[in-house]
Amino acid sequence: TVPRSKGLRDAEHQRASRIPSQFSQEERVAMKESLKGAIQIPTVSFNPGEFNTTALAEFGEYMHKVFPTVFRTSFIQHEVVGEYSHLFTVQGSDPSLQPYMLLAHIDVVPAPDQGWEVPPFSGLERDGFIYGRGTLDNKNSVMAILQALELLLIRNYIPRRSFFIALGHDEEIVAPGSISAGVRGTWGSEDLSPPPGKGCPARLHVDEGSFILDGFIPSLKKPFAMVSVSEKGSLDLMMEVNMTPGHSSAPPKETSIGILAAAVSRLEQTPMPNMFGSGPLKMTLQQLANEFSFPANVIFNNLWLFWPLVSRLMERDDITNALVRTTTAVTMFNAGIKVNVIPPVAQATVNFRIHPAQTVQEVLKLAKDIVVDDRVQFHVLEAFEPLPVSPFDDQALGYQLIRQTIQSVFPEINIVAPGICIAQTDSRHYTNLTTGIYRFNPLYLQPQDFSGIHGINERISVQAFETQVKFLFEFIQNADTEQRPVSHLHEL
Ligand SMILES: CCCCCCCC/C=C\CCCCCCCC(=O)NCC(=O)O
Ligand SMILES: [Zn+2]
Ligand SMILES: [Zn+2]
Questions:
Q1: Rounded to the nearest whole angstrom, what is the distance from the C-alpha of residue 25 to the centroid of ligand 1?
Q2: Rounded to whole angstroms, how far apart are CA atoms 34 and 141?
Q3: Is 171 a catalytic residue?
Q4: Rg, C-alpha atoms of the chain
Q5: How much is the pLDDT for 488?
Q6: DSSP string covering 332-385
Q7: Which of 87-96, 379-388, 428-437, 478-487 is predicted least confidently?
Q8: Which protein residue has the closest C-alpha to ligand 1 atom 12?
Q9: pTM of the model
Q10: What pLDDT sits at residue 49?
């Protein structure tokens, strides 16, 4: 197929019929090789301002190479934002339709070699899986979005509804989010609402942050699609103890390390309160109730009676425990300058993920009440409140569009339920732009796969990646053909 050059918007481009999401063997091989190439570029972000800028620049060039039609199509504008983020504006043929936004991120967390079956930036394929940092979080989405668009354009598709593709380079660091800042810059206002004539506020976002979940809840045998309609907040708290340094041959009763270690231990041994029943989880379980086998189906259909039992059971597993409470993770500890010197300072950083029923201030106070030691200083490095719940009723067009696409691409999945993302996504930077923020990665995830995210042996099956491309290929077309509900339209 001859790729279309810029400026062509002729009748050939206009298509009434839907393009089937069937890809040639050559296209299927090309898309998996493109993902492997993306994984091989180590776009690691370490801390605010600490990125592999060489790799990020290389990735920008790489996208031009593997998606030439995207970059040469006249109705697609590409902007580099914050030096390494990328914002694509795909101008649809019907400007009256509210646009939407697809989010993904280019950066990945570091990946030391130890424990990996293959080197984490090799992109090697083994037994039908592509291994590497970013295969699930989140280069799979970056490549799937652009691949789906490339394949649609090659087939002369021209979207009716405009949409944005926002590919951030700093999602993995706690920062204001360059791409969202860039979107603000593009639209010229802090609150992200575009100036007149620059198009309407986006009506929905689709970002990482949930999956087709398979095997996360005992007695729930069938996988189900959870679309995260909210996400937990976060508090990065640095605790510090300062002491006068001295000779270790005559040490004080407690050093700064001992004082801080005891404080950290008290935090770890005192979990935040179980908030089961006061967040989206209850909705998720009620929607799943009849999918459980007996007697679980009776329990989940009567949570008014059995919620104490369910809340205790959810605590047993680290992932479901993260759904019922604010979690406490001591992730960094730095102290000491030499083996025979009393340490002048000890610092520990705690990453709290805040349950939607709590606030940053409440968690900070609870932490201080647990530590209860005036020698420990508290420094808030970064904090985000839990996000509001996006609409997911029948009138919520964004949610319904995702649900419709799930059902067409995954006909075997008969439950699509709203839920909460236990992690953070870039979508938290867009709450001023729309209330329709949804987080869903169209691929199956099992608990052992979850351990690969930020862990070792992160991998995606070739089949799963191909299906993710298919989902986006369908989603973009569904966004053009969605039917308006008869009654009032939900402002998203
Ligand atoms: C009742 C249903 C059980 C739900 C089980 C939830 C399983 C976990 C599913 C999704 C988690 C999302 C992880 C992927 C996004 C990670 C994004 C990220 O790393 N952000 C940065 C950060 O959070 O620090
Ligand atoms: Zn991540
Ligand atoms: Zn991510």
A1: 33
A2: 12
A3: yes
A4: 24
A5: 38
A6: EEEE-S-TTB--SEEEEEEEEEE-TTS-HHHHHHHHHHHH--TTSEEEEEEEEP
A7: 478-487
A8: 209
A9: 0.89
A10: 81
